Amino acid sequence: MKSWKRSGFTALAAGTALGCMALLCGCGIKSETRIVRISHGQSETHPEHLGLLKFKAYVEEKLGDKYEVQIYPNELLGGAQKAIELTQTGAIDFVVAGTANLENFADVYEVFSMPYLFTSEEAYHEVMNNRENMEQVYASTDKAGFRVLTWYNAGTRSFYAKKPIYTPDDLKGLKMRVQQSPASVNMCNAFGAAASPMSFGEVYTAIQQGVIDGAENNELALTNNKHGEVAKYYSYNRHQMVPDMLIGNLKFLQELSDEEYAIFREAALLSTEEEMESWDEQAEEAKRIAKEEMGVEFIDVDIGIFRDKVSDVQQAMLDKNEAIRGLYAYIQKVNEKYTEKKTVQEGN
Ligand code: GCU
After folding, report:
1. Handedness of CA 174, 176, 180, 181 (dihedral sign)
2. Reduced to 3 states, what is the DSSP secondary structure of residue 94?
3. Cα separation of 172 and 194, whole Å?
């Protein structure tokens, strides 16, 4: 697998040098197909991969004579940060990456790293599905040479480790992997742990070899990425809902005709629908597999204690980063709407 990783990369560079054109010969007619490359860090059964297959099918159904979409899973083209750089330069065309990886390109993305930003899944989905609002956020990386086309649900993140975590006190002295973003590091340290940022693909070995004690992620990390083999305790403290983004090279997107652009956008939205449909199912299934087949213990903790521990973090982030204030205020409104709904329902 590793040698493929390297040779795949060389082949990619060569392909790029050729201007990403493949010559297809059929019945003596020569036509040129533009290869569209998408990189992501998940396995081929992950909801995001399934969503991207939808993207591929739709683009090729509508524009198959001009475009062939190739999907590279499992960080084959590099971890999120590397793959974003490749997308920036146009060496590849699209990448799926979590918003934590975008903080260095646009300050507004820091908002999603705030602990306990969304107070319900409903609020999270409503905010992310508000396309008009999100378009402004998506355009915030234009200056960096890429733009977000759509989002994918990446569930709710919680801590998991080699030993059980019941309260923030149990995190004291533990080295926990976080995503490579300053806000994620701050958050983890605020919980009392020692944050250890690294790319997603390195986490399994780091836990196995004892370089770190654990990490934080959704349930699929336990199964799809096999972290449940090396970390047997998953504590539902639910500190973050961090979306993943489908990011496209801006020049590529700009050079599409209006009609083509509309098709790529539609393909992106269809991929989100597909991804979200399989997410809930797969998260449930991951929990079952982790528990029954991998022996992972799921711990329901008192979330209030964890929330209290990091209660100053949101305000500190707001004070420092002006770019997040507008979106934060909007998210609070949506949060309230669902809190009110719940209170009314409970009252009935
Ligand atoms: C999730 C998320 C990824 C992210 C990863 C991580 O799997 O979907 O986008 O890279 O967590 O923690 O790095």
Report:
1. negative
2. strand
3. 8
Which pLDDT tens digit goes with each residue over 96-144?
999 999 999 999 999 999 999 999 999 999 999 999 999 999 999 999 9
Q: State the closest ligand 1 atom to the C-alpha of 178, by its place in the atom list counted from 1.
A: 12
Mean of the per-residue pLDDT values of the chain = 92
Residue 215's CB is within 10 A of a number of other CB atoms, namely 27
The answer, yes or no, to whether any atom of ligand 1 lies below 6 A from the CB of 84, is no
Task: Tell me the sheet residues that pair with 234.
Answer: 160, 298
* Domain end position, chosen among 232, 255, 281: 281
pLDDT given for residue 60 in this prediction: 98
Mean pLDDT of the region 276-285: 96
244 CB within 6 A, ligand 1:
yes
**Torsion of Cα atoms, 216 then 221 then 223 then 224, to 10°:** -170
Range of the domain at 100: 32-153+242-281
Question: Are residue 66 and residue 207 in the same domain, yes or no?
Answer: no
| Neighbour-count burial for 279-291, b at 16+ CB within 10 Å, e otherwise | beebbeebbebbb
Ligand 1 atom nearest the C-alpha of 152 is: 8
